[in-house]
């Protein structure tokens, strides 16, 4: 395959993959929004409000002056617990189910587009499945623009080599960070030991003058 033709195919693949990635990001953001959705603060405030109302009702109709504090504590605690940990989770679960149903309808066109992109890339069979990513294709395009490769095979080999070196570098960086952390911890330990020794010396000095 000529280099110009390869570059054209890679540009088309990059456009498709970028669109696929944008759709995936939008769907993931909505999915996480649903997963972490809760109204804990709202239900806690409602529980406080209900507890206050129940306390006022009990204060005016059922309790004596000796029972005011105990009744207030009980009504507030029970109301907050019921709304925050019993009623609230049930209502949130129902709300999440409604949000999921709405999201499935709203994002169906995006998912259809993503499937179409995947099918298109599979049918082209130019880029191996492992390298059908925005990251890989963008690197292959950079290699062509910088005159570093003449064929797709050369580009894939160069990409694999660079990713391997990057992985090794990340591992080395992690080891260096761990070593720095250990050195810092040892330094702190030595400092603490010196402070303990210094404190002991001061104590001994004070004892000498007693």
Percent of residues in beta strands: under 5%
Note the run of SSEs as H and E.
Answer: HHHHH
Overall number of strands: 0
Helix content: over 70%
The count of domains is 1
Oligomer category: single chain
Distance between the termini: 95 Å
Residue stretches low in confidence (pLDDT < 50, at least 5 long) are 194-210
Profile the largest sheet: none
Mean pLDDT: 85
Count of helical stretches: 5
Q: Globular, elongated, flat, extended or rod-shaped: what is the shape? A: elongated
The Cα radius of gyration reads: 33 Å
Q: Which structural class do the helices and strands define?
A: mainly alpha
What does this structure look like?
The chain is an all-alpha fold. The protein has one domain (about 5-150). It has helices spanning about 5-35, 40-60, 70-125, 135-145, 150-210. The protein is elongated. It starts with a helix and ends with a helix. Mean pLDDT is about 85; it is low at about 195-210.
What topology does this entry show?
Elements: H1 3-35, H2 40-61, H3 68-124, H4 134-145, H5 152-208
Helix pairs in contact: 1-3, 1-4, 2-3, 4-5
